[in-house]
Design brief:
This protein is an all-alpha fold. It has one domain. 75% of the residues lie in helices and 2% in strands. Strands 1-2 form a two-stranded antiparallel sheet. A hairpin with a 5-residue loop joins strand 1 and strand 2. Helix 1 packs antiparallel against helix 3, helix 3 packs antiparallel against helix 4 and helix 5 crosses helix 8. The longest helix has 90 residues. The radius of gyration is 35 Å and the shape is rod-shaped.
Amino acid sequence: MDDWIECLYKWQTLAAGLIALVGALCAAGWTVHKINKQINLQKESFDEDKRRHNEAIMRKELVARAELPDALTEILKFASNIVTECVEKLENGKKNNDEGTEIFQKIDYKKLLSQPPKNSINIIKTCIEYANADYAPYLLRLVLEYQINNARLSDRSETIMSSDRINGHIADAAFMYYLVELIFPYARGQNTTVPKDAKDPKKIKAAVFNSIQLNSPLGMRVFPQQTNIFNEVYEIIDFRYGQEFEDQSSN
């Protein structure tokens, strides 16, 4: 009888230990389950917040891009007016001053700067924040080039209107025109990636002619001479942008 009681006592202790162990395991399992559930809930909440954020960014990009074509059109007009004004001054002839320097009629800077496309530039600045990674740098470059161009047009330090100055203005405007032509497919929703052949100085040179209306009086005079009328402009474009585009294309 005593042996039976002693055996029962020992098994009771073991059973109590096993029950305690099972209870601990159950508690641990329940705790892990609750923690995993909380983690999953937090992950779902994070994913939902991320989805909403991405949708908000996408909608803002669409809104900004909806205004972009009109803004780019204004930049095109601004660049085209500069080229037209400068080409007309080159066409109107030149004369040598007492030092033998070729001088031209002064550019009507007041007319060129009378209606700057500031609102268009602000639209482009807004679009930079939401544009995709391919086109955002080109939008930023367009804003910077406009600011540089505007500063050069506002500079009155040179008293002599030389061919270098006039052709420099044409090259500036042509580069802006080129950037706008590059960005237009993105603004219209046609492209989301920049074409691989975009980085080509030849496209900037083509923009010189693209900025002049073919059916305009100036266009009808200039286009038959396209083999040589802009040679100095092309040299400036090669000097300014040739190496830059060559470096970018090799990356």
